[in-house]
Every structure is written in C-alpha cells, then in structure tokens.
Amino acid sequence: MNSQEYMQFYDRVGLLNGWDFSQVRCISEGVKWNFYDEVIKNCKASDILLDIGTGGGENLLSMASSTALLIGIDLSHAMVETARQNMQKAASSNVRFMQMDAQQLQFPESFFNVVSCKHSPFWVSEAARVLTQGGVFLTQQVRECDKANLAQAFGRGQSTREDGALLDQYMKELRDAGFQNIEYAEYDAVEYYEREEDLLFLLMHTPIIPRFGHEEADFRTLQQFIRDYRTDQGIQTNSARFMIVARK
Which one of 13, 16, 34, 225 has the largest count of C-beta atoms within 10 Å of its C-beta? Predict the structure, then answer.
C-alpha cells in the first residue's frame, strides 16, 4: 500500500469499529507485557499524556483515571470521530481527541510528561520537543517477523524489511535526539484464533496482508491457510512486538 491507500484503509476501519478487537477470540502464549499497563506504570496522577495514533481511543479511555489530562491524536478523521463517540459513552471529562499529523505536533514545547505510541508512526524529534525534561516516551511496534506464516502463504505482508531493522532505526534516532536510559524488550508469541471469522476479521481490519480481499484468490489462500494451520487450540500464527521506553 502507498500512503494514500493506507489512509483510505484506516478511515474505513475507523468508521466501522475504531480499533476495537475485543470481540475477536484469540489465545496468545508468550506475550511479555501489556503496553498500556507499562504506560500507566510511568504516569503520575498530575501528568499530562499524549497518545500518538490513538485509533478509536479505547485504550486511552481505559487509562482516564491514571493522569490529570490525556490527549489522543490520530491522522484519520474517521478514527477521531469514533474516538469522540467512545468518549461520550465513557463520560470521561479529562480526555481529548484531535486529528493531527504526528510529524507536526500542534503543541508547545515541554507540554507533556508522557508520550505513548502503539503501532503507529512517530517522529522522534517531535516527541522530544513536546516532552518535559525528564519526561518518558514509550512505543510498541510490530516486528518485521510478525504473522510470518500468513505472509508466506499470501506471498506478501506488511513488512519487507529484515527483522530488527525498525527497532535499530528508532533506537538510533532516540539516542541522537538525546534521550537517556533507553531500554527495549521483544517477544515473538504464538497466537491461536478460535474461529475462521476471527482470523478473517483480523485480515479485513489490519494491513497484515496488504489489499486483502481485493483478489478472489485471497479467500482460497485463506481457506488453505486455515487447513494447514488449524490446531486443537485454534488457527496458529505469531504475534511479534518490540517496546522501547526512553527518558528525555
């Protein structure tokens, strides 16, 4: 997908369900952390937090009681509209959602105590600019080896880079920007999707297989994949992630 295709894709997802996968039945073995639990551990009650690529805002709203003010931004207008609808349902008075490009954050310098970013692009220079001295930046990103058997089956995937390339890139950028105490962790967990419709939902609402469903052969490939990787626990694939925690 090019940038315009990704934007159109995320807008469609935003209008449909935000970034809510709570109904997908999936068991994971080997997951080492919950990202937003790690964010909460680095927050104080008086902090102001920025969440980049907030999607439908579900995760940010679940943290509303952890800090004084939480602001979620997303490039997708549809995602932000869904997040605002979710905010009204949650009746959270200290959460705000804005449409904004992470490459050009419309906030003053040293405004946030914590900046988080899960599975979304970010620009280190902008994150550093809006963080207070001593502030914390956390990101979780998808490793290049994620959903490896799906990428092999379809002959295309969300990444063509060598595993570890994105982690190395971000670590260097953070060091160059003057961040201190930079730590990272990785995992490659096994995932089991209980039903065929769970795996189909995942593929229809994420860019794991770019342009999934645009070709009739995709559904035949999916059926063969399900036959090949069905186990007693579910349809097997992998979930590979890395997390970086850095202090300014």
Answer: 13
